[in-house]
Amino acid sequence: MLTHLVSLLVLSVTLTFAIKTSASIGESASFLEFIPAIIIIAYLEDRAPTLAATILMLAVGLWARGLDQISNDDWARAILLLVSGGVIAITFHRLRKDLHEVADARLAAVEATGSRYRWAFERAAMGFANTNEKGELLQSNRRLCDMTGYKEEELARLQLNTLVHPDDRDALARLLAGLGKDAASFGSEVRLLRKDGTAFWARLTLSSSVPDGVLPESIFVVVDDISERQAADEALRAQKEWLDLALSAGRLATWRIDLKEGIVTGSATFWDILGLPPAASRPLEELAAVIHPADWPKLAASRKLGPVTNYDVEIRVRRPDGHIRWVALRGREDKHDNHPQRLGVAADLTERRQTTLLRAAAKKRERIMLEQRHRFSNLFPVITALVNMVNVPDNNIAKYKQTLIDRIRALEATHLLLSAKGNQSAMLHDLVVQELQPYMGTRDIGVSGPSVSMSGGAAESFAMIVHELTTNSMKHGALGDSEGRIEVNWASEDAGSDVVFEWLESGRRRTSNVVRHGFGSMILGVDGAPLVGHSPKLEMSDHGLRYSLKLSRKEIGPLTHRPGSDFQGA
Predict the structure, then answer these.
(1) 10 Å Cβ neighbour count for 50?
(2) 127, 205, 381, 389: which could join 187 in a potential S-S bond, CB 3.0 to 4.6 Å?
(3) Are 439 and 466 spatial neighbours (Cβ–Cβ below 8 Å)?
(4) Backbone phi, psi, residue 267, to 5°
(5) DSSP code at position 424
(6) What is the domain extent for residue 522?
(7) How far apart are CA 321 and CA 311, in angstroms?
(8) Where is the PAS domain (predicted)?
(9) Considering the entire predicted model, what is its pTM?
(10) pLDDT tens digits, residue range 432-452?
(11) Residues 268 and 342 in one domain
(12) In sequence order, what DSSP letters do the residues of 467-530 get, joined into one string?
């Protein structure tokens, strides 16, 4: 309506101006003064009003000149004005039509976009809603309704604040405060309340475009249900706490070595076991300062790993206070992101090692005490036999006494050799001769074999075997019979094979052939493995005894033949 009034006003002013101008200037007046008015009317009105206004202006212009005074030039100008008005009207009409078409196309696109947005809004997998600055929910989608248990019209009567758990409403307030500052969106994990009063965890995101820091009328709310993820996180945290508790109770630590980068990471307990201050990671080479040099290759092995394998080593750690600790590293070797790595748990075995050593020492002491007890229990019968074997030469008591003292001292030397050589190397020949020395000269004894060196522990055990054979022979066999004979020899097929030791007795035995299963049988290996060597064999008869034993290369040294290695006593 306003455009029509403006068009009439322009037309009236133009006609009035044309009449007055024509009266004052006469025939020299032209129709050009109508062109601006035609353009304005064409802009404001459609094609028909513009053509009508043009014809009206043309008629008034001709009338103002007088019908009897119109010249050919006036008619020419009038026709030109009519054509110009038509062109202007058609041109503006076409422009207006094109503008309408473009506007309609854009409007259709906007409507299509809005339709797609509404479709996505309604069917989105997450909850969507619009709220104003007061927190009132203006519009909600189906997913949000399903999450909360409300209908859309029920949500429209609620405020966003009422959907948030009371303990998390401060977080919502911070989100709204953040939107009013310098951020277009804020998010936080909060608990939302359903219609039935139950709560669930959700990721709540508020977003908007903030003009000049002023809170807008509409805020876009995104609600993502993270209850399952939150439950999984809680379960994971609980499992981690349980694992940490179990590792702490077991005094275990976790560690990981990236062999490609040469980086070691570990828990605080791991660094404490190594005697180092806690750190997120350390270069692998830095551990060389605390790892025993002999054990370093176990930790810094080849960095090219094969298939996934178990990793189980024990290393010694030199702590800053000087103490040596035993540490067990157990885990796996595999690849992660094309990086060869080792990872697992670590345990301090020092106390266990010490306990094992103490138990071994106690067991060794117990064995030594048992042997000492057994040896002393055999000592008195041996001394008695020595006294009985030595005759009084020509009723010479002094010579008899000296001979008896010599035999007892030889027996004492055997016991001292057995005790003193326990932790040193000894010659097999010396061990045999020293044990049989008290009986040399009164019994037929032969000892032969190559020179064989035995380590301390093996020598002590072998001396116990020879002592047991000698004691047994004195009590029941050849040494107790004036007609008896003992042959002791040892030999080896070649430098790399076992040494075969043999003890042969001939003469009448004073007991049955039944083997008694006592401490002596345990020493000889009748009931199982002997104290040293392997494959023992014991054969007894009424007229003799044969005992054989094999000594491995781990228990003896190299064989050598030397003059005097054979011994004969008669």
Answers:
(1) 25
(2) 205
(3) no
(4) -75, 170
(5) S
(6) 390-560
(7) 29
(8) 113-176
(9) 0.38
(10) 998 888 888 888 999 999 988
(11) yes
(12) HHHHHHHHHHSGGGSTT-EEEEEEE-SSTTSPEEEEEEEES--SS-SPPP-SHHHHHHTTTSS-
